[in-house]
Amino acid sequence: MFSSETIHKLFRVYEEFSKRSCLERSELSESLVEFLISKDLIYLGLGGEVCIKSLVNLALELLSLGYDVESISKLLNWKYFEELVSNHLTLSGYHVIRNLRFGLRRYEVDVVGIEESSEVGLVIDCKHWSPNYSKRGRLTRIASDHRVKVEELSARCGYVLKDYKVLTKAKYLIPVIVTLTDSLSGYVNGSFIVPILRFKDFVSNVMYYVDLLSGRSGMVLNSCYVQVKH
């Protein structure tokens, strides 16, 4: 178990990696280098420098060690967070769409992941960069708004099928908000709120959580779904 002093030093390393992708090895203690290598968070450059693989993965490690979420979130670029969510969906066998725009009001969702065998589409907004998103009241309003967006996507998906035919493979669309904080989670106002540390488990067991927390009401029937005949 790391001491609070060591965890703080790890945060300082995270802070430096948020400014530049590689550090001189002399800037890190050998124990921290060994820890970062053991977690597959860094690689060594040709000149011996230490380079970060993913700032988000280091952020998640700090979160798991109990470091302050607000301090961590201030240094995260939103693209890193969306990339982490997208990469995990891809590794889990999902087709992924990034930054999908649709509807008369020009709605946008950050990530859509579609898994053909289950005929499920996860429609995801990533809320991470602002400490205000950790406030329960604001998250509940965001959950309601996101549900409306997903229903709009179902109603008007025909307008984007030319570019995203994979949408026809999802019978159900599930509204999901992925957060950095764990101040609120579960099925809230028509959307699933999933802290990033629990996202992997949620993706692996999505239908279990739908049945457990919401039943059919947790899913939006996709009007563009086309059943494949076998």
Describe, in plain words, how this protein is organized in 3D.
The protein has 230 residues and is of the alpha+beta class. It folds into two domains: 4-73, Arc Repressor Mutant, subunit A, CATH 1.10.10; 78-221, TBP-interacting protein, N-terminal domain (Trna Endonuclease, Chain: A, domain 1, 3-Layer(aba) Sandwich), CATH 3.40.1350.70. It contains eight helices and ten strands. It has helices at residues 4-17, 30-38, 55-64, 69-73, 78-91, 136-156, 199-204, 206-213; strands spanning 22-23, 42-44, 50-52, 95-102, 107-115, 120-127, 172-179, 186-188, 191-195, 220-221. The strands form two sheets. Strands 4, 5, 6, 7, 8, 9 and 10 form a seven-stranded mixed β-sheet that branches. It has a three-stranded antiparallel β-sheet with strand order 1-3-2, with helices on one face. The termini are far apart.
Q: What are the key terms here?
A:
three-stranded antiparallel sheet; 8 helices; Trna Endonuclease, Chain: A, domain 1; Arc Repressor Mutant, subunit A; alpha+beta; 230 residues; 2 domains; 38% helix; seven-stranded mixed sheet; single chain
- Named at the architecture level, the CATH assignment of the largest domain is 3-Layer(aba) Sandwich
Query: What ranges have pLDDT less than 50 throughout 5 or more consecutive residues?
Result: none
Beta content:
15-25%
Whole-number mean pLDDT: 89
Order of helices and strands: HEHEEHHHEEEHEEEHHE
Mind describing the biggest β-sheet?
7 strands, mixed
CATH homologous superfamily designation of the largest domain: TBP-interacting protein, N-terminal domain
CATH class of the largest domain: Alpha Beta
Do you know the CATH topology of the largest domain? Trna Endonuclease, Chain: A, domain 1
Q: Span between N and C termini?
A: 54 Å
Structural class: alpha+beta
Number of helices: 8
The shape is: elongated
> Measured on Cα atoms, how large is the radius of gyration?
19 Å
Which oligomerization state do the chains in this entry correspond to? single chain
What's the count of strands? 10
What percentage of residues falls in helices of 4 or more residues?
Answer: 25-40%
The number of domains: 2
